[in-house]
Amino acid sequence: MNISVFGLGYVGAVVTGCFARNGHTVVGVDVRQSKVDMLNQGVSPIVEPGLAELIAEGRQAGRIWGTISAEDAVLFTDISLICVGTPSTVEGGLTTDYIEGVCGEIGAALAKKDSYHVVVDRSTILPGTVEEKMIPILERASGKKAGADFGVAMNPEFLRESSAIKDFDEPPKTVIGQFDERSGDVVAQLYEGLSAPLFRPSIKVAELVKYADNVFHALKIVFGNEIGSIAKACGMDSHEVMDIFCADRKLNISPAYLKPGFAYGGSCLPKDLRALTYHAHQLGVEVPVLDGIGESNKAHIQRAATDIAALGARKIAFLGVAFKADTDDLRETP
């Protein structure tokens, strides 16, 4: 397949090298002439183990070339992967200016193209961005209709710096948020042969999955550090504590408890959380994540109460009042 990659930063450079190695022809597009020149010289524009060799080999084989022209890239290829940056705003929001600019350029090129083309976002974007920002820009600039004249998909990347090629070849999963089945079918061809499970949800689900992954990874790091800080303050080996904790693959390191539902309660979790956070404070250890667990649980209960009140019902039946099924323990039932 002929692929155009917009943005020769970290993600764009890695996918350029990997897809070219897999036999595809890849056109790298960037606004910086220096990066395009590097690509055309067979030089990787970023530092990543093994990538320099892939770029050099791909260029030598004629499967990689670079350009600053979005039109040339789109007209030559079957699919465009958008891999530009989405930096934070001062307030903490997300900047989509680069994505919007690229969509305008791709759309203008699509106006001059008769054959079917798929536009795929690989940048990290908030739910709704593809449908509310990207597609309208593509349709206005091209004068065409998404789903009829061109395809759209959201394909989040799960690459880590320093192990990106291995992550590309052995991903934990492949997610293709598809505007329609035809769009998803084209993107899926890029990943034929991978053993990772393939998910083809809606575009919004794909957008949120990427954030769920990254936020959970950050949460795991902070949780480990807070437990480690308590252990250190108690004079024990924090690594030993977490090694034993991680040995539990039934409840701790597993899908257990990770289903959206109602709040926690019962005789153990509320009491033990209060006790540990109180002890941490007595030791002079700040544990803002552990402190926030109880507050988050209360907020979840309040959301449920607000939803019920909004129904306007005067009579409400509770089918089960314990904190979970198959028990009559009512202690701290949410």
Q: What oligomeric state is this? A: single chain
Instruction: Please identify, by name, the CATH architecture of the largest domain.
Output: 3-Layer(aba) Sandwich
Report how far the terminal alpha carbons are from each other.
54 Å
- Reading off the top of the CATH hierarchy, the class of the largest domain is best stated as Alpha Beta
Descriptive overview:
With 334 residues, the chain is α/β, with parallel strands linked by helices. It folds into two domains: 2-201, Rossmann fold, CATH 3.40.50.720; 213-310, Rossmann fold (3-Layer(aba) Sandwich). The protein is built from twelve helices and nine strands. The chain has helices at residues 10-21, 33-40, 51-60, 70-76, 97-110, 129-142, 164-169, 181-189, 203-233, 238-246, 269-282, 288-310, and strands at 2-6, 25-29, 64-67, 79-82, 118-121, 151-154, 174-175, 177-178, 198-199. The strands form two sheets. A seven-stranded mixed sheet has the order 3-2-1-4-5-6-8, with helices on both faces. A two-stranded parallel ribbon has the order 7-9. Helix 4 (70-76) crosses helix 5. The longest helix is centred in the middle third of the chain and has 31 residues, at 203-233. It is globular. The model has no long low-confidence stretch (mean pLDDT 96).
